[in-house]
Design goal:
The protein is an alpha/beta fold and 506 residues long. It has 3 domains: 295 residues, TIM Barrel (Alpha-Beta Barrel); 64 residues, no CATH class; 73 residues, no CATH class. The protein is 32% helix and 13% strand. The chain contains 14 helices and 17 strands. The strands form 6 sheets. Strands 1-2-3-4-6-8 form a 6-stranded mixed beta sheet. Strand 3, helix 5 and strand 4 form a beta-alpha-beta unit. 36% of the residues are buried.
Length: 506
């Protein structure tokens, strides 16, 4: 009987809280102009430059604060240092939901410490295409395992006070032609393989969902009423909001079909060449469509309400709060535990591992990442770590100064810059002619900008000239970038080019 009374009282408290919350949101909606409402339905440029991936300005006169969004598949991506966590695919290899909770909690704490409110993670797309470039950012090829891990991670993120965004909804399983490809999938496969992870995230209380670039059985995922309304809202009871992947908005009518917010809400001039950019749909065009009667304002109110309800639930309408402190050592310990739990030893002939003190005295370390740790990936998985220690340096410290540890690169992943002797500017000088977006020019004898020579963030450059091979033969010309995009154009009749560029933020 006591348990029943407690349950009833708890239910009354929850009901009262929901009613108060609804009343507050209703009051804000009633006080907002149409332009102010629409300003919450698309992103903008953060005037402080702090936003890791996206920014929604809020409505200052009504006390609705701005929201900053940051990427976080494997650590917070801002301009500040963060804990570089092992890839989510390694986390899933631990088969440990409790560890996934702590993994998410690390990101939630660090995101709030950097004054970000929304985390664009976790990613729960199923690993189905082996060569897909972002497989490492998601969990696994198994829907049950992925569902268990994503639910725990969402809880860890949100109990730290940050809103989780489960992505990319849905069947976004490879990068090639992702902006246009139509994924044809039958309902049983969709429900048994691709949807369980997303449903688990919703059941765990995820505040937001990011819809994918691709089409699903015809309509774009961000314009797909079956996905956004029939399944997400009507079947699963999702009460948060749906945002687009970056530049994945397509039509005003998507607001009617279940989309709530378009990101990033502005054109990035230096984005990837495969992204056809245009001004935000949910901005001036939406304002005009509502004023003309093409779109009912009730759909604007619905989308704004969904956003405000989540802001209210996470305390963002209560005024600025004190950000948490980051315990660097404790978070590093979680990262190490994930790395250890996710590692699988397939064979250990003659009990070679673990290495003994004697073994450490005579070692050969092979591989390019032994001296330069591979921390995160490009784009949304890029993290600026608090500190890094290479495998070689750690072994040398452990073994002591008397140890004979030899390093061999093995496979060279980087190659070498094209020598100045093979390059000529249009007027015949050694090197290539560089031109900036502002028209300034200079001659670069060597095209290699790494480490301290890295090009400034947000800059754009073009190099022109002639490349003359010293001898006849087959050459492979590569462009390698980190946190940027690049293209190579050639007037030669035969040119083999491979480009490596970062993914877009989301």
């Amino acid at each position: 009987m006591k348990h029943l009374v407690t349950t009833l009282l708890f239910g009354l408290v929850i009901t009262a809280a929901v009613q108060a919350q609804s009343s507050r949101v209703d009051s804000l909606l009633a006080a907002m102009t149409l332009a102010e409402k629409i300003s919450l339905l698309h992103g903008a440029i953060d005037p402080t430059g702090e936003a890791g991936a996206g920014y929604v300005p809020g409505v200052a006169r009504l006390g609705i604060p701005a929201m900053r969004l940051t990427d976080g598949p494997a650590g917070i991506r801002t301009r500040h240092p963060a804990t570089a966590l092992p890839a989510p695919v390694a986390l899933a290899s631990s088969f440990d939901p409790e560890l996934a909770y702590r993994y998410g909690h690390v990101m939630g704490i660090e995101g709030r410490a950097r004054r970000h409110e929304v985390l664009l993670a976790p990613m729960v797309n199923i690993v189905r295409v082996p060569e897909a470039g972002r497989n490492f950012e998601t969990f696994s090829e198994d829907p049950l395992l992925s569902a268990e891990m994503v639910a725990a991670e969402v809880q860890g993120i949100q109990e730290a006070g940050m809103m989780a965004t489960v992505k990319h909804y849905v069947v976004n399983n490879f990068e090639n032609d992702r902006m246009r490809v139509n994924v044809v999938v039958d309902e049983r496969t969709l429900r048994e393989i691709y949807l369980p992870g997303f449903e688990a995230a919703i059941r765990a209380g995820a505040a937001a969902v990011m819809c994918a670039y691709n089409r699903v059985n015809g309509p774009y995922a961000c314009d797909n009423e079956m996905l956004l309304t029939d399944i997400l809202r009507d079947e699963w009871g999702f009460e948060g909001w749906v945002m687009t992947d970056w530049f994945a908005g397509h039509s005003l009518e998507s607001l009617v079909r279940g989309l709530d917010q378009e990101m990033p809400g502005y054109t990035i001039p230096f984005s990837s060449p495969d992204m056809p950019l245009a001004p935000a749909v949910f901005a001036d065009s939406l304002l005009a469509a509502v004023e003309s009667g093409r779109i009912d304002e009730a759909y604007v109110d619905r989308a704004v309400r969904r956003i405000l309800v989540q802001m209210e639930q996470f305390g963002l309408l209560d005024g600025e709060s004190t950000p948490p402190e980051i315990d660097i050592e404790a978070h590093a310990a979680v990262a190490r535990e994930v790395a250890e739990a996710g590692a699988v030893l397939l064979r250990n002939e003659n009990q070679t591992l673990p290495l003994s003190e004697r073994d450490l005295q005579h070692l050969v370390v092979i591989g390019p990442t032994a001296t330069r740790p591979l921390i995160g990936g490009g784009g949304s998985s890029r993290v600026r770590p608090f500190r890094t220690t290479s495998t070689l340096a750690a072994l040398q410290e452990l073994a002591g100064p008397q140890a004979q540890i030899r390093y061999v690169p093995g496979i060279d992943l980087d190659g070498v810059p094209v020598p100045t002797s093979a390059l000529r500017t249009p007027d015949g000088q050694p090197g290539l002619l560089r031109q900036g977006a502002d028209g300034t020019t200079q001659v670069d004898p060597l095209i290699g900008f790494t480490g301290e020579r890295a090009l400034p963030p947000g800059s754009q450059w073009t190099w022109t000239g002639t490349l003359t091979a010293p001898t006849a033969g087959v050459y492979e010309l590569k462009l390698q970038t980190a946190g940027a995009s690049a293209r190579c154009r050639s007037t030669a009749s035969r040119c083999c080019v491979r480009a490596c560029s970062s993914a877009m933020p989301a």
